[in-house]
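ok, trying the design again with the full structure, not the truncated one.
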């Protein structure tokens, strides 16, 4: 149901006059939070699952979906089971929800934004999520086994890998695009995370692609 109204007769001074007052109420809405949503394909999967169940949604974004109306326990369990088949997980506890929100902010920054951060990541996360950064950092480390900073670095390196394979930018241009302070900084971080230099990694991937094309 998209809306509701209340019937309320109101008498005017003359007893023969009645006014019927309709008060429009906004439909109930709720947000569900989903783990492992990191790409456009994930959003498509969630939209399809909700539509298949006949649930109305106003927005599906990385890590969450806004649904109109209430969800029964049976529907909740079905969503959870269906999403699990696609490697996605419905989140119920508050701390896990916060962790997914932190991940969402970082993923959007690294993979879907070209703008450099105007402030430090700690300040930005606090502004976006309205929590003290130390509190968020402690929960993240406790549940994930590594820091927020490490999560950021790993995603930056994954993005660098993509850009290397696309072969549209050289390493200096990639360092600038990814807002590294210098090419040396990017090269050092890449080697530390992957165990390879950026140029060696690119050469390996080109070789692998050539071998696949020969099959």
């Amino acid at each position: 149901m998209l809306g509701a109204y209340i019937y309320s007769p109101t008498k005017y001074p003359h007893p023969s006059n009645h006014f019927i007052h309709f008060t429009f109420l906004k439909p109930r809405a709720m947000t569900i939070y989903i783990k492992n949503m990191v790409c456009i394909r994930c959003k498509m999967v969630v939209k399809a699952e909700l539509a298949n169940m006949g649930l109305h949604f106003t927005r599906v974004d990385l890590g969450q979906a806004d649904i109109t109306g209430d969800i029964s326990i049976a529907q909740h369990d079905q969503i959870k089971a269906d999403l699990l088949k696609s490697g996605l997980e419905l989140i119920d506890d508050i701390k896990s929800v916060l962790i997914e929100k932190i991940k969402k902010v970082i993923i959007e920054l690294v993979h879907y934004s070209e703008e450099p951060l105007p402030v430090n990541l700690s300040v930005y996360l606090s502004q976006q999520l309205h929590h003290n950064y130390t509190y968020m950092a402690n929960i993240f480390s406790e549940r994930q086994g590594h820091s927020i900073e490490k999560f950021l670095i790993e995603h930056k390196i994954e993005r660098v890998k993509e850009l290397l394979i696309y072969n549209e930018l050289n390493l200096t241009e990639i360092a600038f695009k990814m807002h590294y302070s210098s090419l040396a900084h990017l090269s050092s971080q890449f080697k530390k995370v992957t165990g390879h230099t950026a140029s060696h990694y690119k050469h390996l991937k080109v070789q692998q692609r050539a071998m696949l094309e020969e099959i």
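Keeping the full-length input from now on. The beta strands are 4-11, 18-25, 29-35, 56-61, 64-68, 89-91.
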